[in-house]
């Protein structure tokens, strides 16, 4: 075998070895796991209690616009997909602001913020209305000259809030509707069925009957449970 033949055989052997090495390297790269395969996703930072408290506080406090207030001194406050009822109590010598606010139908957000701060410490003084709590609501005049926001509960139970001004009553109703607190049953076409006058009349009849039973109950009687939503608000 001459020198030329030996050189050719050596070249062919080197080329074949290089081809095998290249194929092996490509196979390893294709089948090798990616750096992020099987690795757990980075955990999301959960808000701590302080952050949740701040978010709740910001969501609870209304804007600079005046807040509607009932004749009983209860502020109606938007709270995301709910509405909060904040009972206002003066904690200073100057209590005239509450009476003047009730007469005007609105209260400063500053007083609402102060009361919410007290409620967070004591855990009392705030009720929350959630989506679907009412199946109907309407505005009407009260016999004493005020304005009533009448409501029907999930089972048709009657209740109302009394306001000194029509604007305060209507603002509160709009707040209920916007948050979905008032939600009517749907018909076959998926459209809300408006409440009828008869629905309110029947609800009010049952409400007044319960009020009479509570007023005439003796100490030995077990009084019926009052409506969750009544004139006490």
Describe the structure in your own words.
This protein is of the alpha+beta class. The protein has one domain. The chain has six helices and eight strands, in the order ααβββαβαββββαα. It has helices at 3-31, 49-60, 96-104, 109-122, 166-179, 197-216, and strands at 67-68, 74-79, 82-87, 106-107, 126-130, 134-141, 147-153, 158-163. Strands 2-3-5 form a three-stranded antiparallel beta sheet. A three-stranded antiparallel beta sheet has the order 6-7-8. The chain has a two-stranded antiparallel sheet with strand order 1-4. Mean pLDDT is 75; it is low at 2-60 and 226-233.
How would you sum up this structure in a few lines?
This protein has 233 residues and is α+β, with helices and mostly antiparallel strands.
Structural descriptors:
233 residues, three-stranded antiparallel sheet, alpha+beta, 42% helix, disordered N terminus, disordered C terminus
Topology (SSEs and partners):
Layout: H1 3-31, H2 49-60, E1 67-68, E2 74-79, E3 82-87, H3 96-104, E4 106-107, H4 109-122, E5 126-130, E6 134-141, E7 147-153, E8 158-163, H5 166-179, H6 197-216
Antiparallel strand pairs: 1-4, 2-3, 3-5, 6-7, 7-8
Strand order of the largest sheet: 2-3-5
Proportion in β-strands: 15-25%
Can you give the helix content as a percent range?
A: 40-55%
Spans with pLDDT under 50 lasting ≥5 residues? Answer: 2-60, 226-233
Domains (count): 1
Cα distance spanning the termini = 113 Å
The coarse silhouette is globular
Q: Give the rounded overall mean pLDDT.
A: 75
β-strand number: 8
**Total DSSP helices:** 6
Measured on Cα atoms, how large is the radius of gyration?
35 Å
Structure class: alpha+beta
What composes the largest sheet? 3 strands, antiparallel
């Amino acid at each position: 075998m001459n020198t030329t033949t030996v050189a050719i055989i050596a070249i062919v052997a080197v080329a074949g070895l290089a081809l095998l090495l290249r194929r092996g390297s490509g196979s390893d790269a294709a089948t090798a796991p990616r750096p992020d395969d099987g690795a757990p996703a980075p955990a999301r930072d959960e808000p701590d209690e302080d952050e949740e408290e701040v978010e709740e506080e910001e969501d609870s406090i209304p804007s600079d616009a005046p807040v509607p207030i009932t004749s009983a001194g209860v502020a109606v406050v938007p709270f995301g997909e709910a509405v909060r009822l904040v009972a206002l109590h003066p904690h200073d010598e100057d209590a005239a602001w509450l009476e003047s606010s009730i007469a005007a139908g609105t209260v400063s957000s500053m007083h609402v913020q102060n009361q919410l701060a007290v409620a967070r410490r004591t855990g009392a003084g705030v009720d929350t209305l959630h989506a679907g709590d009412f199946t109907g609501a309407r505005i009407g005049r009260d016999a004493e000259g005020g304005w009533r926001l009448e409501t029907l509960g999930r089972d048709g139970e009657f209740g109302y809030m009394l306001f000194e001004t029509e604007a305060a009553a209507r603002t509160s109703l709009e707040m209920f509707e916007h948050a979905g607190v008032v939600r009517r049953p749907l018909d076959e076409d998926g459209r809300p069925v408006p409440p009828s006058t008869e629905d309110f009349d029947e609800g009010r009849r049952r409400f007044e009957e319960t009020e009479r039973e509570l007023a005439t109950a003796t100490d030995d009687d077990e009084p019926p449970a009052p409506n969750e939503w009544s004139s006490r608000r």
